[in-house]
Amino acid sequence: MLKYVLQPLVVILVGAIIFLLDYYEKVSPDFNEVVLFLLCLCKSAYFIYVTFSRIKKSLETEFFYHEFFSFIIYNVLLIILSYAADFYCLYRIDGLAFHGMGEEKTIAGEFIAFIYFSIATFTTVGFGDIFPVSTSARIFVSTEVLLSFFFNILIISNVIHLRESLGKKQKISKQK
What we know:
Elements: H1 2-23, H2 29-60, H3 65-93, E1 98-99, H4 107-122, E2 131-132, H5 135-175
Helix pairs in contact: 1-2, 1-3, 2-3, 2-5, 3-4, 3-5
């Protein structure tokens, strides 16, 4: 259980550190951008690793819908929030990285706008009201799109596996 609490805290902590380093101008914006990019790549690799590990575990043992769907919901929310933090940090580093931020002038308002943007990006809806302008922002958005595509394909394929597994369980219980 500690693992599930620790993951979002680490994401929030790292995002906060990058934000504070930029806010207090302790390091150059370029350095912050590179650190943010490396964090983004590591985070994407981590989500892929965790997803494959969970799928492997599900193939080796019995598991239930509620376990798999709680895993999916938890990871989707974590991906969306972590990318929202990345987008927000990038926006704070380079105010011209995204277009369409509107009149949001508070930290909370800007972060909520990036949560909205991250949800639209993850679900591939992409309304177009907020969009990346800089190369860095386009790379960050592309990594979330690729991660969401990967994650969605794995979810769909495992729902089929879940249905087959439940079908086998029902046949076995009917035979008894």
